[in-house]
Design goal:
Radius of gyration: 21 Å
CATH architecture of the largest domain: 3-Layer(aba) Sandwich
Strand content: 15-25%
Number of helices: 12
Number of domains: 2
Order of helices and strands: EHEHEHEHEHEEHEHHHHHH
Structural class: alpha/beta
CATH superfamily of the largest domain: NAD(P)-binding Rossmann-like Domain
Shape: elongated
Oligomer: single chain
Largest sheet: 8 strands, mixed
């Protein structure tokens, strides 16, 4: 028997595997993976020392916690052949964007516990932001176990499923907003005479350092902002320019629009 099974071992599937192996007590011989690309399975098996299979039915039969990391359009054709192999003692952890728990459960026979997660792309470097919703059938013990797995990938929050679209709009799409902001900071530096490479290094480290400072101090963003802002100094002039440009309103609107689109897609 395997503790963990991962169906779909692309970039996100590999990120989940890598985080679990690096930051939990689970060993490679407790994990089995599968994918429609057999060559990819072989690569992952050779790289991480986990078990691999071409047969999803075997993976489900032998695993306790099964991550489903396929494209939403492939849900039915992936899950329907597996219904006889799921049972109440297993947990299906869906990584399918926009696919509700009830839709997955309707494809399964019997009472199969399902968890739904929304990770973002920084899980690829172990710094993801992950929203998770649990089916009522999942025991507290199994919830804790799943959270331990997910915390190996970054920061995890438990939310009602009806807020999953908001998580998608904020942290799911959020890395793109941050990348755009970093590029804008760097371009501002270029305008003032810095090379783009130097400006990008400064901008990237500034955002990284500010985020780490916020997380580690636990202080409110406005408190840390005020500590940087001297009367009549450079920062207040820069903040005034951001305020005139409507940065806060624009970012809030971006989250709103992305959330709205997530609801439409689901």
């Amino acid at each position: 028997m395997f503790k963990i099974g991962i169906i779909g071992i692309g970039n996100m599937g590999e990120a989940i595997l890598k985080g679990i192996l690096q930051k939990t007590q689970i060993k490679p011989d407790e994990i089995i993976v599968s994918d429609i690309n057999n060559e990819r399975v072989s690569q992952i098996v050779n790289k991480y020392g986990v078990a691999g299979t071409e047969d999803n039915r075997r993976l489900v039969k032998l695993s306790e916690y099964i991550f489903l990391v396929v494209k939403p359009k492939d849900l039915a054709k992936t899950v329907e052949p597996l219904t006889d192999y799921f049972n109440k003692d297993k947990v299906l952890i869906s990584v399918l964007a926009g696919v509700k728990i009830d839709k997955i459960k309707n494809l399964l026979v019997g009472s199969v516990p399902v968890a739904r997660i929304m990770p973002n792309t920084p899980v690829l470097v172990g710094e993801g932001a992950i929203g998770v919703s649990f089916d009522d059938q999942i025991s507290d013990y199994k919830k804790s176990y799943i959270l331990n797995l997910l915390n190996a990938l970054g920061e995890t929050i438990v939310i009602p499923e009806n807020l999953m679209d908001a998580v998608t709009g904020l942290s799911g799409s959020g890395p793109a907003y941050v990348f755009n902001f970093i590029d804008s900071l760097a371009q501002g530096g270029v305008k003032q005479g810095l090379s783009y490479d130097d400006a990008l290094k400064l901008a990237t480290q500034t955002v990284l350092g500010a985020a780490k400072m916020l997380k580690e101090t636990g202080e409110h963003p406005s408190v840390l902002r005020d500590k940087v802002t001297s009367p009549a100094g450079t920062t207040i002039y820069g903040l005034h320019a951001l305020e005139k440009g409507g940065l806060k309103n624009t970012v809030m609107k971006a989250v709103e629009e992305a959330t709205k689109r997530s609801k439409e897609l689901s």
